[in-house]
């Protein structure tokens, strides 16, 4: 049994008894009881990864600077695209992957030589999407997509209030997940709750459009003056967003866009993919 | 009261209401807790034992009321977290953090102790 993790372009399947303990930009730490801790470092490179040229940098960063990266072969690695290297040669615990043809690299460092089943689960599922593509995010119970070039700013996972903030040029995208919805809404409608809680935070009057009892959109009132002013450099820009009440998951999902508006179809795709996944266990 | 040594110890601790606590239920079904005001230790030492401390009232929200109603002197922090996770369909780790925070806050007010 495995669970998907999608973070900052990385895609990986992790065993059900492991969970992410650190999620940062270009770095994920996964841990589980009685299993080696796994650090995943990933990101774009200027050129396709070359183990001779770029390997020493990764080895030093992994604390095994005296080892050498060597091609890694196992029966289950034959179907993998791209290359895979490992170090040290005796009991390998650093595995470096070049996903497909992208100019990116993923380094998987285990705190101890991993069991074959764990290594296979991780390595076979590892993939990485470059920043100029749509990226899928899947962490804890959240699932969404971000447009190309969206850069993760801050991520906080407080009990009942998850918040991830992305910057995309002069636009800020904020994904919020509030729970439990039954307590927050307290018998009121989503629109009433939105007026009372979310819009107050923006400090100005926003138009709310309900599309059913479980979904609403909010935006600055559409007026020609506002549209012209929003394009000026000193203007903080417009606010636009969507709220969804996930009744099955007992959560409220909020997507807010601040600053220069992204194309409507990109915003719609981002909002429509924003959902929660069922909790296992 | 002995301080829990690790996360596992903390999850095995049993929260119990402190003496002198009175509870009522509001019209909305939320629990209201009346408890003696907590004083700084140095101030409490200066006051004679005969002085009655003023009562403070705290109203819990729906989630707090749910947890409070499940504190029966036998349920551990882990049991409470599991019930919260099941009832509110939230992540187990999230429920543990929320329950731990709730118990810590009530503990700071002198409402709950750990056994």
Short précis:
Chain A is an alpha+beta fold and 281 residues long.
Explain this structure.
The complex is a heterodimer of chains A (281) and B (115). Chain A is 20% helix and 41% strand. The radius of gyration of chain A is 22 Å and the shape is elongated. The longest helix of chain A is centred in the C-terminal third of the chain and has 13 residues, at 190-202. Chain A has 6 helices and 20 strands. Chain A has 2 domains: 2-128, Protein Transport Mog1p, Chain A, CATH 3.40.1000; 135-276, Mog1/PsbP, alpha/beta/alpha sandwich (Protein Transport Mog1p, Chain A). Chain B is α+β, with helices and mostly antiparallel strands and 115 residues long. In chain B, 43% of the residues lie in helices and 18% in strands. In chain B, the strands form 2 sheets. In chain B, strands 2-3-4 form a 3-stranded antiparallel β-sheet, with helices on one face. Chain B has a two-stranded antiparallel sheet with strand order 1-5. In chain B, helix 4 (77-88) crosses helix 5 (92-108). Chain B starts with 6 loop residues before the first helix and ends with a strand. The model of chain B has no long low-confidence stretch (mean pLDDT 88). The chains are: A alpha+beta (281), B alpha+beta (115).
List how many beta strands of chain A DSSP finds: 20
Largest sheet of chain B, described in full? 3 strands, antiparallel
Number of helices of chain B: 5
Q: What is the correct CATH architecture of the largest domain in chain A?
A: 3-Layer(aba) Sandwich
Strands across the major sheet of chain B, in which order?
A: 2-3-4
Low-confidence stretches of chain A: none
Distance between the termini of chain B: 7 Å
Under CATH, the topology of the largest domain in chain A is which?
Protein Transport Mog1p, Chain A
The sequence of SSEs of chain B as H and E is HEEEHEHHHE
Q: Count all strands of chain B and give the number.
A: 5
- Average of pLDDT of chain B: 88
The largest sheet of chain A is: 7 strands, antiparallel
Chain pair sharing the greatest interface: A-B, 16 and 15 residues
What's the shape of chain B? globular
What is the global morphology of chain A? elongated
Rg over alpha carbons of chain B: 15 Å
Tell me the CATH superfamily of the largest domain in chain A. Mog1/PsbP, alpha/beta/alpha sandwich
What's the N-to-C terminus distance of chain A? 11 Å
């Amino acid at each position: 049994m495995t669970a998907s993790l999608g973070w900052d372009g990385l895609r990986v399947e992790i065993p059900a008894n492991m969970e992410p303990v650190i999620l940062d930009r270009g770095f994920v730490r996964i841990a589980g009881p009685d299993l080696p801790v796994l650090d995943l470092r990933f990101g774009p490179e200027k050129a396709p990864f070359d183990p001779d040229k770029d390997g020493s940098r990764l080895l030093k960063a992994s604390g095994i600077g005296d080892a050498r990266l060597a091609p890694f072969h196992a029966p289950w690695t034959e179907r993998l695209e791209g290359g895979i290297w490992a170090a040290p040669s005796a009991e390998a615990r650093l595995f470096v992957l070049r996903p497909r043809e992208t100019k990116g690299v993923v380094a998987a460092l285990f705190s101890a030589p991993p069991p074959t089943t764990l290594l296979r689960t991780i390595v076979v599922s590892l993939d990485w999407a470059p920043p100029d593509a749509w990226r899928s995010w899947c962490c804890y119970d959240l699932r969404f997509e971000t447009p190309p070039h969206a850069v993760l700013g801050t991520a906080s996972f407080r009990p009942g209030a998850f918040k991830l903030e992305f910057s995309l040029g002069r636009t800020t995208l904020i994904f919020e997940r509030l729970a439990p919805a039954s307590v927050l809404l307290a018998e009121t409608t989503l629109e009433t709750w939105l007026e009372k809680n979310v819009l107050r935070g923006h400090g100005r009057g926003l138009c709310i459009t309900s599309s059913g009892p479980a979904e609403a959109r909010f935006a600055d009132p559409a007026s020609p003056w506002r549209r012209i002013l929003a394009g000026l450099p000193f203007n903080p820009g417009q606010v636009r967003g969507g709220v969804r009440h996930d009744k099955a998951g007992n959560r409220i999902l909020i997507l807010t866009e601040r600053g220069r508006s992204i194309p409507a179809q990109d915003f719609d795709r981002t909002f429509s993919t924003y959902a929660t996944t069922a909790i296992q266990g | 009261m002995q301080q829990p040594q690790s996360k596992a110890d903390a999850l095995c601790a049993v929260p119990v209401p402190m003496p002198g606590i009175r509870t009522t239920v509001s019209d909305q079904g939320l629990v209201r807790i009346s408890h003696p005001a907590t004083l700084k230790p140095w101030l409490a030492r200066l006051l004679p034992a005969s002085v009655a401390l003023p009562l403070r009232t705290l109203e819990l929200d729906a989630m707090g009321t749910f947890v409070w109603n499940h504190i029966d002197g036998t349920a551990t922090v882990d049991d409470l977290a599991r019930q919260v996770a099941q009832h509110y369909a939230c992540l187990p780790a999230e429920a543990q953090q929320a329950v731990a925070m709730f118990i810590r806050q009530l503990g700071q007010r002198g409402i709950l102790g750990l056994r």
